[in-house]
């Protein structure tokens, strides 16, 4: 089956309905045996130093995997640097399929974008609806994993992050991914409840630095809410695919995202929130709004390139946890 790269979550139902295999280039980049070298390869090719490392990593990993010759580029609702990223990949011979989430969540415009994507892949609404039913059965398992995280305290923050973030492409094989989730659900349901003292939320894009979740748990705190990763699971029980992607908060404005964050922070009884902001990302500006609107203590962390937690970040986490206690 042909593969199509994606740079962020898109209506993956269309891709599966067409019999293609989606590949989330973010996940491929960060799980590479040496993601830092991919960033450096992009810089050697001419990408500027002061640019998001995710963009540089996606560029290099796309060129490294020569079986991915088509990429869906989200030109509105994600990173503005995606425009130039796609142009450089197009220069290298990769076919680009644009997709845009309308800023105002307009239903008609979103439907039009989805139908243009369906036209490219040659599928009908009926086929896409069947793919949605197939994927929703997998998603429901991950929703249960999330519930076990915050309601029964049987799942750690890293596992919560990992299985939710994989819902952007289901690792290219939904049924195999579902079997993996079933296995972890079986283990965690019989596990003793965890007893970390502090309950944290993590908001913002997934971290480019490692060890964050493990470090927090070693110090008696646990992430029980991963905001954007949870959104990748489409936790909305609606039969309407257009409405599903209207409810998906990540591509739209910060105020719509904050409604979801505040609701989940209350439901999950959070003690504090870590706001992760990627270096050189426009979303860093939104930290100003988040701090004014959230009624919880917020620690803002900035990550640059793939690496372990540095000493400064560890120290700031320690101080934040001490403050919450």
Automatic annotation (TrEMBL):
GO molecular function terms listed in the Swiss-Prot or TrEMBL record: hydro-lyase activity; iron-sulfur cluster binding
Gene3D superfamilies: 3.40.50.11890, 3.40.50.11900
Cofactor: [4Fe-4S] cluster
The keyword Iron is assigned to this record: yes
InterPro entries (alphabetical): FldB/FldC_alpha/beta (IPR010327)
Family: Belongs to the FldB/FldC dehydratase alpha/beta subunit family.
Identification of the protein by name: Benzoyl-CoA reductase/2-hydroxyglutaryl-CoA dehydratase subunit
Organism: Pelotomaculum thermopropionicum (strain DSM 13744 / JCM 10971 / SI)
Organism taxonomic ancestry: Bacteria, Bacillati, Bacillota, Clostridia, Eubacteriales
């Amino acid at each position: 089956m042909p593969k199509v790269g994606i740079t962020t979550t898109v209506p993956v139902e269309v891709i599966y309905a067409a019999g293609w295999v989606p590949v989330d280039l973010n996940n491929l980049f960060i799980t590479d045996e040496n993601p830092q070298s991919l960033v450096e390869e992009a810089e050697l090719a001419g990408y500027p130093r002061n640019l998001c490392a995710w963009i540089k990593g996606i560029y290099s990993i796309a060129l490294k995997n020569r079986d991915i010759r088509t990429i869906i580029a989200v030109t509105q609702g994600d990173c503005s640097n995606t425009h130039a990223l796609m142009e450089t990949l197009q220069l290298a011979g990769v076919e680009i399929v644009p997709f845009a989430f309308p800023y105002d969540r307009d239903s008609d415009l979103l439907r039009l974008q989805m139908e243009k994507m369906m036209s490219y892949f040659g599928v009908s609404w009926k086929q896409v609806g069947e793919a949605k039913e197939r994927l929703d059965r997998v998603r429901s398992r991950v929703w249960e994993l999330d519930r076990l995280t915050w309601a029964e305290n049987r799942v750690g923050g890293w596992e919560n992050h990992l299985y939710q973030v994989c819902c952007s492409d289901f690792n290219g094989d939904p049924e195999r991914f579902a079997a993996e989730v079933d296995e972890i659900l079986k283990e965690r349901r019989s596990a003793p409840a965890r007893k970390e003292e502090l309950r944290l939320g993590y908001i913002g894009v997934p971290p480019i630095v490692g060890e964050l979740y493990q470090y927090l748990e070693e110090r008696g705190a646990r992430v029980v809410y991963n905001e954007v990763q949870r959104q990748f699971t489409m936790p909305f029980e609606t039969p309407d695919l257009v409405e599903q992607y209207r409810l998906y908060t990540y591509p739209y404005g910060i105020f719509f995202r904050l409604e979801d964050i505040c609701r989940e922070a209350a439901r999950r009884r959070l003690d504090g929130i870590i706001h992760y902001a990627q270096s050189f990302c426009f979303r860093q500006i939104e930290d100003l709004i988040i701090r004014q609107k959230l009624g919880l203590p917020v620690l803002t962390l900035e990550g640059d390139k793939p690496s372990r937690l540095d000493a400064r970040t560890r120290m700031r986490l320690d101080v934040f946890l001490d403050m919450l206690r």
